[in-house]
Every structure is written in structure tokens, then in C-alpha cells.
């Protein structure tokens, strides 16, 4: 929770004397939660630019834990419970409920989940049947370390994943970035 406040203060989204965790959160609190999670876990920077593939980012599981900490902080510690964030029946822009359980945060988490799906990323593209291809699975299997695929000997060419991928890459003309989107893996 201190990390969220430090981030928001550092980005000048929150003044040093502002109290973020309180019984009457600001109307834009869901967006501040999204900004904090997005900064650490999304492939897009807050300014809309793409993060480099080499830049490490948090997994979807980490993003869920960040959101859970916000839900706990506002729900339990501030007594706002687990009611969704919405405008009071009284009106006048008065918001009630837990800002972590808002349409804004929920929508962001759904889109983050889609963007961090089981995506196979090709980090070294060299078209050669003798070259090794370096892959890793993102997000779902963080315990699986990057690994190499080596070309099989010529008498096993018909079952060689390196040759199959090299042929596919040659036809697709992909030279960098994602080789398979989440949707193509389903």
C-alpha cells in the first residue's frame, strides 16, 4: 500500500499532503489504482508508448495481488466493504463503495489478462535449420525458464520443431515481436 502512495506521489498524481487511503476516496481513485498497476504490469507505458520487450514487467498474478491489496486497504482498513464503486443515490457526484471494485479497474484487469495471455514470444529470429531458437512462455508458467530448441538431425526433419517454425516464419515474414498472439493459440 505504501508502494502505491509512493508511486502516485512520485508521478505527481497525488500531492504529498493528500491522504489516498481514506473513508471518502477521490472520484478518480479507480484511475489512480489502474495507473499504479499499469506502470508495473502492462506492456504499455502511462504515456501510451510501448514498453521494450527487454523491460521486465509484473505478471497478471502480480497485478491481481496489487488489486487485492487495494481492495483490502479500502474495504477492510477504511471500512468501505466490498460494494462496487458507484455514484450515491443522493447524486451530486458523491461516490460510494470500494474504488478497487470499480468498472474502471475491472475493465483494465480484463484487458491486462487478455494482453498477458499464454503468448509465445520469439526473442531470437535467425532463419537457419541449424540455428537454435530461444523461447519463453510468459505469465502462466513463470517457473519455466527460457529454453533452447535445437534442430533435429536430417533423418528426423519431418518432426523437427525448429524446421517447422523456420518454415512458418519464412512464409509469415515475421522479423521481430510476438510470433503468436493469444487468440491464435486457442
Write a structural description.
The protein has helices at residues 2-10, 29-41, 60-77, 103-115, 161-172, and strands at residues 86-87, 95-96, 120-122, 133-137, 147-149. With 186 residues, the protein is mostly helical. 18% of the residues are buried.
Summarize the structure in short:
The protein has 186 residues and is mostly helical.
How much helix, percentage-wise, in residues? 25-40%
What topology, given as strand order, has the largest sheet? 3-4-5
Strand content: 5-15%
Overall pLDDT confidence: 78
Kindly name the structural category.
mainly alpha
Task: Note the total helix count.
Answer: 5
- N-to-C series of helices and strands: HHHEEHEEEH
Give me the Rg, rounded: 22 Å
Task: Estimate the global geometry from the Cα principal axes.
Answer: elongated
> What summary fits the major beta sheet?
3 strands, antiparallel
Number of strands: 5
Uncertain runs with pLDDT below 50, 5 residues or more? 118-140
Distance between the termini: 36 Å
List keywords for this structure.
single chain; 186 residues; mainly alpha; three-stranded antiparallel beta sheet; 8% strand
List the helices and strands and how they pair.
Elements: H1 2-10, H2 29-41, H3 60-77, E1 86-87, E2 95-96, H4 103-115, E3 120-122, E4 133-137, E5 147-149, H5 161-172
Antiparallel strand pairs: 1-2, 3-4, 4-5
Helix pairs in contact: 2-3, 2-4, 3-4
Amino acid at each position: 500500500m505504501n508502494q502505491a502512495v509512493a508511486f502516485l506521489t512520485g508521478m505527481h498524481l497525488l500531492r504529498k499532503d493528500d491522504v489516498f487511503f481514506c473513508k471518502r476516496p477521490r472520484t478518480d481513485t479507480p484511475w489512480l489504482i489502474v495507473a499504479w498497476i499499469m506502470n508495473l504490469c502492462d506492456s504499455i507505458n502511462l504515456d501510451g508508448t510501448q514498453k521494450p520487450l527487454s523491460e521486465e514487467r509484473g505478471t497478471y498474478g502480480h497485478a491481481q495481488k496489487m488489486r487485492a491489496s487495494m481492495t483490502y486497504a479500502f474495504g477492510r482498513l477504511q471500512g468501505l466493504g466490498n460494494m462496487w464503486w458507484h455514484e450515491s443515490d443522493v447524486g451530486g457526484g458523491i461516490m460510494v463503495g470500494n474504488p478497487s471494485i470499480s468498472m474502471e479497474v475491472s475493465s483494465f484487469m480484463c484487458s491486462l489478462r487478455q494482453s498477458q495471455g499464454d503468448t509465445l514470444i520469439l526473442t531470437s529470429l535467425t532463419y537457419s535449420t541449424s540455428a537454435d531458437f530461444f523461447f519463453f512462455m510468459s505469465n502462466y508458467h513463470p517457473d519455466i525458464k527460457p529454453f533452447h530448441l535445437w534442430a533435429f538431425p536430417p533423418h528426423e526433419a519431418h518432426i523437427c520443431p525448429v524446421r517447422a517454425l523456420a518454415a512458418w516464419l519464412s512464409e509469415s515474414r515475421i522479423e521481430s515481436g510476438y510470433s503468436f498472439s493469444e487468440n491464435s493459440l486457442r
